[in-house]
Amino acid sequence: MRIDLHVHSDASDGTRSPAEVMRRARGNGVDVVALTDHDTTAGWDAAAAALPDGLTLVPGVELSCVHDGRSLHMLGYLFDPAEPVLAAELARIRDDRVIRARTMVERLRGLGVDVTWERVRELARGDAVGRPHIAQAMIEAGAVASHDEAFTADWIAEGGRAHAERYALDPERAVALVRAAGGACVLAHPRARRAGYVFPDELIERLAAAGLTGVEADHPNHVPDDRAHLRDLAAALGLVVTGSSDDHGAPTGDRIGAETTAPAAYEAVLDAARGVVPPTP
Questions:
Q1: Which one-letter DSSP state was computed for residue 166?
Q2: pLDDT digits over 132-160, tens only?
Q3: Are strands 56-67 and 214-218 parallel, antiparallel or unpaired?
Q4: What is the maximum span of the chain, computed from C-alpha positions, in angstroms?
């Protein structure tokens, strides 16, 4: 069984529709896929309606959190999307995403980049607007040649000239909210050094004590030594280890299934959740 517990659609910053993500997952030989768009569950219904034979959908979300002033991402699975406190926090994060994105567009224009809010919003196709949409608009405007070039200190990386802060959750509160909504939490890519997502063991220990279910050790942006360290840490803390592609469609090379989760770890995530039952065709 091939299990990928972290993929994105154009409900947030992916480039493929939820239905196409499901088709591509099955086409890549994946048996279980989690749709984890940023701060939104908007793609769940479309993904469930388009499930091909043999594919199970794990409804999820990638929650925006902040630790010591740096972005941290938390994967929530199988929670009740109607739980009022969590739903309100997701809406607040999405609303602030719009404010932040508009601010960054204004700053880019002040730096001479010919991007427009209208184009960024068009690329986002909804309220889950993010920096990848701004980066795409920058590419179209000829300011940069790639997403990687946009995500630098010159432009929209954290601390960059056009970067703007936004509302995000404390990670321990995020774990508590997802658990209260019946779900399970896994810490996303905690050693993705190139992207700046590097967090100390002490934080992972605190999150484990707060109810974290697992840690995403096998990720395309994790080097072998970090994967091994995270596996050892997870074993010491009683956490499961997951593997995921973190596919965003075209920008990441349509890599669904590039990293996978062991069936026993997937079962542990299911056991930790008491919310939504994974839909099958």
A1: -
A2: 899 999 999 999 999 999 999 999 998 89
A3: unpaired
A4: 52
Mean pLDDT of 65-75: 93
- To the question of pTM greater than 0.70 for the whole model, the response is yes
Neighbouring C-alpha atoms within 13 Å toward the C-beta of 101: 30
pLDDT confidence of 276, banded at 50, 70, 90?
Answer: low
Residues 183, 188, 189: CA angle, nearest 5 degrees: 165
Q: Taking the CA atoms of 20, 21, 26 and 29 in sequence, report the sign of the dihedral they define.
A: positive
Give domain 3-89+168-272's CATH number out of 3.20.20.140, 3.40.1180.10, 1.10.3090.10, 3.30.559.10: 3.20.20.140
The rounded distance, in Å, linking the Cα atoms of 87 and 80 is 9
With 0-12 / 13-18 / 19 or more C-beta atoms within 10 angstroms meaning exposed / middle / buried, residue 162 is buried
pLDDT tens across 16-28, in order?
Answer: 999 999 999 999 9
Sign for the pseudo-dihedral over CA of 151, 157, 161, 162: positive
